[in-house]
Amino acid sequence: MTFQHDQDVADLRAFNRTYTRRLGLLDSSYDGSPFTLSEARVLYEVATRTDPVAAEIVRALGLDPAQVSRTLKRFTERGLVTARENPAHGRHQLLSLTDEGRAAFATLEANTKASVGTLIESLHPLRQARLLAAARDINAVFENDAPPAATLRGLEPGDLGMVTARQGVIYAREYGWGADHEALVAEIVAGFHRNFDPARDDAWIAQADGRMVGSIFLVQGDAPGVAKLRLLYVEPDARGMGVGQMLVEACVARARALGYQRLDLWTVTVLSAARKLYQRAGFQVIEETPCQRFGQDLVDQVWSLDLTA
Length: 309
Prior knowledge:
Layout: H1 3-22, H2 37-48, H3 54-61, H4 65-77, E1 81-86, E2 89-97, H5 99-121, H6 125-143, E3 151-153, H7 159-175, H8 179-194, E4 202-208, E5 211-220, E6 226-234, H9 243-257, E7 262-268, H10 272-280, E8 284-293, E9 296-306
Helix pairs in contact: 2-5, 3-4, 7-8
Organism: Caulobacter radicis
GO molecular function, one term: DNA-binding transcription factor activity
Pfam families: Acetyltransf_1 (PF00583), MarR_2 (PF12802)
């Protein structure tokens, strides 16, 4: 176990404690109702499904089948739930709420909505927005069991600013580069927008789990037939997913399709992961110069790929 792992576990446990306390989930009854939290969840599943069977509720809630069975038995004895034979499967009974059950559920829903609504409204609008965005993100994470997969898309409003901001943050955090680097990225992005020619230029945003995880830009170079690969980056938590290779391959393929004979790029030797991607794609170093930039001693490199080979 690493320190970061232990801290991550502690953070998630702290969230769970705060969440359960603020919503009153530790109370013996839920939202002033006669139901415990698990009973309220079972009642919700019966109310919002069409003729469910007990096994559906077990799968939906991840509860022990015996616990669900006991809860349904109590609901039946209290006149909240009725069960009838399933013509398609004799062993599984179809469940539905009685009139009394529907009334109990309506009261529970009204109280729950009022309770959660009061919690939201007690927060400042800025914190409301943060809470709701985080809730949607958490729900999306747990609702999708498939591993995240990256896709590429074109530019959308806000992307140019996001690329500048994220590269400024990431390179400052990982390499200690100062504001000069972020300003350079901003200049490149502004120039791309100002001089954009769909017959010569292009850009891609890598996206995974609904957020930007990388970028790459293709721009016309300084000589005829020469293009430049610019602004490649991959978010730290998306590395190892093949995002960088996907971006580089898209840029190279587009440069060929647009009729360029050569694709150049500038980098520095400290960016070892990026240099491996370039080497794998067939680029070769054609120029190397020690320099001082971004407040550090670095080594500039120019790489080139012959697109006619």
